Inverse folding.
């Protein structure tokens, strides 16, 4: 019961703060939209086929989703440390790891709403259609677990080293590489990089209209294991860096 | 019979910070003290004395190199957040985009507390924030933000409160108001408070006992009255007829607040013994000044603090 109260409080605060930053949010969506339209109509003018165009639509939405999800944790930690509230989050009976988990869930919910709105606007503008299927939520959720794992690593680094924004930007561009990698190669590397395999499955579902149950156990297991490993590594590294920050007295610093 | 329980016990706490190609900075060396429940204890020390490190070690925000911190031992559970809340950075402990009420709701929720709407309303009222409850914290005055930070610590519902510089940057009126609130928390809510501050007036007004810390060592731990007796410092105010530069005497007795008003010279001096007092009178008479008035003032914690900080040897032994 207590945990539910803590989760509700973290989620409520998250949504209130996003609401108060609504203009910033609208402007960044507008920016992403313009960038996407440039890519989309550029591809169209080069005579790209329907599947490629739809693939760019899904891939671009996934990139935005991943980039936002990934930076969420490290950005939140930086902001909390800068504002002097991070130590207050550590002073709670629930562990900070649990609180950060609630933050991740809240951010997933919020960004999923954004993803849906963004995708809807893009479909309207481009006149494309996708086979929307509720099972896609499961695939997106699983795919993003690996992103949150990387977010935990960056979050941990930001606790100790504070300024890690440059690393954030590099990794955001790496996501583009991970997302487009399956378009160029069938090499098994796509099973090991984050979000690549997830993007393949999401594309199949949204473009070819297959359902979650059409995936083989192996296909689904690869995604699950890939994401679980990234998340686990992220949490382990975060825990270690959190310990270092506590030993060096860095939690309240920025 | 009221049983006095120990709210907090700090034993042999040690902490040093490794520095790149430099000697380690020793922040705490074998720090020992305890705080009984219902007590208000002041933690005093100059900048870099180790106060904040001690408080953060107690909160579990800094891992000490050695020693133990025990909270309400009889309850067994030793997660600091179950027993204490803290205001660590004054008005920086609150969320600036949330309103005053939303901040209180969030901090209550963080502790797993629900259904506390009435308590939140009474907290807002207690801190005179009820008219600003829907104002974002960033739009409140600094004093209000500091009160809100204290309210957020209070709404967590823990028995032990750690306040690090709670009046820092506040004007005299707001600082006085906040002191009143702190005293009320003890008398009405039975809270136990460990307070660190540079402001001697705050500590003297609010605390029954002070722990003086410097270079990571506890130099004194006693009731304010006892410290006044032990150090036997007397403050005198002198008024001399005429304007005197008081060369020689000024440095020898460390005269302070020297003023020239209406053809008179006024100054204050802190003296440790009656011998020093008579020596000063002799020296003044030898230099030909005309004494008009001498007044024995109340001794303030500030003089005792300065005496302790200036007169402890390397081992931390204080010479009274």
């Amino acid at each position: 019961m207590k945990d539910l109260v803590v989760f509700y409080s973290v989620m409520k605060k998250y949504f209130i703060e996003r609401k108060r930053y609504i203009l910033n949010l609208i402007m960044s969506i507008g920016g992403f939209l313009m960038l996407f339209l440039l890519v989309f109509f550029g591809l169209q003018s080069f005579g790209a086929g329907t599947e490629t165009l739809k693939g760019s639509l899904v891939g671009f939405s996934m990139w935005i989703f991943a980039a936002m999800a990934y930076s969420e944790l490290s950005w939140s930690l930086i902001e909390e440390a800068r504002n002097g509230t991070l130590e207050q989050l550590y002073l709670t009976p629930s562990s900070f790891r649990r609180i950060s988990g609630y933050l991740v869930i809240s951010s997933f919910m919020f960004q999923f709403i954004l993803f849906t709105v963004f995708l809807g606007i893009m479909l309207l503008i481009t006149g494309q259609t996708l086979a929307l299927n509720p099972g896609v939520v499961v695939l997106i959720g699983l795919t993003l677990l690996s992103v949150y794992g990387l977010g935990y690593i960056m979050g941990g680094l930001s606790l100790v080293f504070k300024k890690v924004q440059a690393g954030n930007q590099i990794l955001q561009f790496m996501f583009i590489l991970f997302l487009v990698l399956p378009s160029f190669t069938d090499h098994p590397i796509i099973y090991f990089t984050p979000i690549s395999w997830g993007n393949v499955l999401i594309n199949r579902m949204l473009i070819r209209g297959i359902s979650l149950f059409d995936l083989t156990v192996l296909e689904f297991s690869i995604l699950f294991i890939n994401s679980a490993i990234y998340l686990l590594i992220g949490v382990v590294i975060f825990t270690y860096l959190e310990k270092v920050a506590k030993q060096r007295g860095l939690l309240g610093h920025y | 019979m009221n049983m006095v329980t120990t709210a907090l016990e700090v034993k042999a706490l040690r902490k040093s910070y490794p520095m790149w190609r430099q000697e380690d900075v020793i922040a705490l060396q074998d720090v020992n003290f305890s705080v009984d429940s219902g007590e208000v204890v002041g933690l005093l020390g100059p900048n870099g004395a180790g106060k904040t490190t001690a408080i953060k070690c107690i909160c579990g925000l800094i891992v000490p190199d050695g020693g133990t911190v025990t909270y309400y031992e009889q309850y067994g559970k030793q997660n600091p957040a179950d027993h204490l809340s803290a205001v660590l950075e004054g008005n920086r402990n609150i969320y600036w985009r949330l309103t005053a009420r939303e901040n209180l709701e969030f901090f209550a929720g963080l502790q797993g507390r629900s259904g506390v709407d009435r308590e939140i309303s009474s907290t807002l009222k207690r801190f005179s924030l009820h008219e600003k409850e829907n104002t974002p914290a960033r739009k409140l005055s600094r004093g209000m933000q500091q009160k809100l930070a204290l309210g957020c610590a209070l709404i967590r519902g823990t028995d032990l409160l750690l306040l690090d510089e709670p009046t820092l940057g506040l004007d005299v009126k707001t600082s006085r108001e906040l002191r009143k609130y702190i005293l009320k928390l003890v008398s009405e809510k039975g809270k136990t408070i460990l307070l660190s501050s540079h402001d001697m007036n705050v500590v003297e007004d609010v605390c029954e006992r002070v722990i003086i810390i410097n270079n990571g060592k506890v130099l004194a731990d006693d009731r304010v009255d006892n410290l006044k007796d032990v150090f036997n410092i007397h403050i005198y105010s002198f008024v001399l007829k005429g304007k005197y530069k008081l060369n020689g005497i000024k440095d020898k007795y460390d005269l302070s607040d020297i003023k020239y008003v209406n053809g008179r010279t006024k100054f204050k001096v802190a003296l440790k013994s009656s011998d020093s007092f008579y020596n000063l009178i002799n020296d003044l008479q030898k230099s030909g000044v005309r004494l008009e008035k001498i007044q024995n003032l109340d001794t303030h914690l500030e003089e005792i603090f300065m005496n302790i900080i200036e007169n402890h040897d390397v081992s931390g032994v204080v010479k009274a």
